[in-house]
């Protein structure tokens, strides 16, 4: 059963999946799609037309501006911001107030299982790879590879992480292992992939 708190503001044209929980003061705008088994935290914002997959978590006061896309199993920490404008301005050069017709929105894409740490800012357009982890307080200005742990301002890769979120341990010949699950990974040409059969 889907649960939407009475203080939440959910547009009539938004689609909310089964067993999703929308907490107090959250806002889900027109044509947004939120999958099944999600949690939308207190004060979170989901922009018009944003697409969120199944089993995602948006923590309190996360701001997900259109046209962001979150695949299944994405975690967005408290007070994270996904931007959507290359050249933000309130007014045009002639001094007139900008409207939605005066700019082309660009979005953030989060691939399956990615996690974005608290108070991070993802500057669109960027793609956060599968099972990647963005450390709290980071500013992401470039695409993040699958399984990368990035941190800093601007964010840079500092480690590899597995699907459990823990840093991987090197075992030689470009191979890595997860201390939690025992899964094996192979690094080649600056990219990491989970080995088949895992």
Features:
2 domains; 198 residues; globular; 7-stranded parallel β-sheet; UDP N-Acetylglucosamine Acyltransferase, domain 1; 0% helix; 26 strands; Ubiquitin Ligase Nedd4, Chain: W
Task: Detail the topology: elements first, then pairings.
Blueprint lengths: L2 E2 L4 E2 L4 E2 L4 E2 L4 E2 L4 E2 L4 E2 L4 E2 L4 E2 L4 E2 L4 E2 L4 E2 L4 E2 L4 E2 L25 E3 L4 E2 L4 E2 L3 E3 L4 E2 L4 E2 L7 E4 L4 E5 L8 E4 L2 E3 L6 E5 L2 E4 L4
Parallel strand pairs: 1-4, 2-5, 3-6, 4-7, 5-8, 6-9, 7-10, 8-11, 9-12, 10-13, 11-14, 12-15, 13-16, 14-17, 15-18, 16-19, 17-20, 19-21
Antiparallel strand pairs: 21-22, 23-24, 24-25, 25-26
Describe the structure.
The chain is mainly β and 198 residues long. It has two domains: 3-161, UDP N-Acetylglucosamine Acyltransferase, domain 1 (3 Solenoid), CATH 2.160.10.10; 162-198, Ubiquitin Ligase Nedd4, Chain: W. It has no helices and 26 strands. The chain has strands at 3-4, 9-10, 15-16, 21-22, 27-28, 33-34, 39-40, 45-46, 51-52, 57-58, 63-64, 69-70, 75-76, 81-82, 108-110, 115-116, 121-122, 126-128, 133-134, 139-140, 148-151, 156-160, 169-172, 175-177, 184-188, 191-194. The strands form four sheets. A nine-stranded mixed β-sheet has the order 1-4-7-10-13-16-19-21-22, with no helix packed on it. Strands 2-5-8-11-14-17-20 form a seven-stranded parallel β-sheet, with no helix packed on it. Strands 3-6-9-12-15-18 form a six-stranded parallel β-sheet, with no helix packed on it. A hairpin with a 2-residue loop joins strand 25 (184-188) and strand 26 (191-194). The model has no long low-confidence stretch (mean pLDDT 96).
């Amino acid at each position: 059963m889907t649960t939407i708190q009475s203080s939440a503001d959910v547009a009539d044209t938004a689609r909310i999946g089964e067993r999703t929980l929308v907490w107090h003061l959250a806002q889900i705008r027109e044509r947004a799609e939120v999958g099944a088994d999600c949690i939308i935290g207190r004060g979170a914002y989901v922009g018009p037309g944003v697409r969120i997959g199944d089993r995602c978590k948006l923590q309190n006061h996360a701001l997900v501006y259109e046209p962001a896309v979150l695949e299944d199993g994405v975690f967005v920490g408290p007070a994270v911001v996904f931007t959507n404008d290359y050249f933000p301005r309130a007014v045009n050069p002639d001094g007139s107030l900008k409207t939605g017709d005066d700019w082309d929105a660009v979005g953030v894409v989060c691939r399956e299982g990615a996690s974005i740490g608290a108070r991070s800012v993802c500057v669109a357009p960027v793609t956060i790879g599968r099972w990647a982890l963005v450390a709290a307080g980071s500013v992401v200005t470039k695409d993040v590879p699958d399984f990368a742990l990035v941190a800093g301002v601007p964010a840079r890769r500092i480690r590899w992480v597995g699907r459990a979120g823990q840093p991987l341990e090197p075992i030689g010949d470009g191979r890595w292992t997860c201390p939690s699950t025992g899964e094996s990974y192979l690094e080649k040409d600056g990219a990491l992939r989970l080995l088949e059969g895992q």
